[in-house]
Amino acid sequence: MTxxxxxxxxxxxxxHPATRPGHVHLTVAxxxxxIEFYRxxxxxxxxxxxxxxxxxxxxxxDLLRLTEVRSARRYRGTTGLYHFAILLPNRRALARAIGRLxxxxxxxxxxxxxxxxxxxxxxxxxxxxxxxxxSPEDGTMAFVNGIPVIRRANGAPSDGREPLDxxxxxxxxxxxxxxxxxxxxxxxxxxxxxxxxxxxLDKSMHFYHDVLGFDNMGMVSAGGYHHHVGFNTxxxxxxxxxxxxxxxxxxxxxxxxxxxxxxHVVERIQQAGLTTEQTDEGVLVRDPSQNGVLxxxxxxx
Length: 301
Description:
The protein is of the alpha+beta class. The chain is built from six helices and 20 strands. 20% of the residues lie in helices and 35% in strands. The mean pLDDT is 95.
């Protein structure tokens, strides 16, 4: 049953600006195959494996967790994960990632969002992944009446979905890079954002902005970033949540700087009349579309 968040008094409450994305946890049907993909194609490291669950990343905290459910299958037309985005530290690292994909002949779609450079691909079970790096020197994006307005640094407009100049990007690579395309991603790689399918835009904005306290940037973020959570109704307004045996996202996480800041957000959630679940890692809450959000703090990493 979906519980709508109560309207809260207007306050200046905002989630701590140092809050950042943590990891995404996916249900998968074939754990061995998925681990191989994320290691060999994406370039993550296997941090640990315990039975049917594994954690991967770049050597620090997990960026991705996978839990195998052999009977799970893909459902369409439901809320859930549109994509999760891995943020690389610079153009050179993105060039290596795309070069790796091209070497493996793995289908991907390099795109120039002007203020970011990116490519998109699907894993073997249909989870969409964005690999990107920031390029604010190339232009800006702002939302006007809910519509993104993107301009190049010279003022020229863009739709933000232009083909990426892969040849120019590849010039970032050194000879050593070209010989080491299969090396793991850099240790300063992290999760950049999550993009969700939701049932209702207004209810989603109320939850993430008014309840959790993320900044409203047209999408939502902490600390003025362009977006940490995006959402859309492209599978249909009023879309149902996925069944319990669905492939895809179990939850995504955000890491607050300390326990006190986490408690502030949890108190806000409880004031809104929403149910929370205490886990070993933090507090799990579900947005109005039943997407799971795990809130934790740095002590749990």
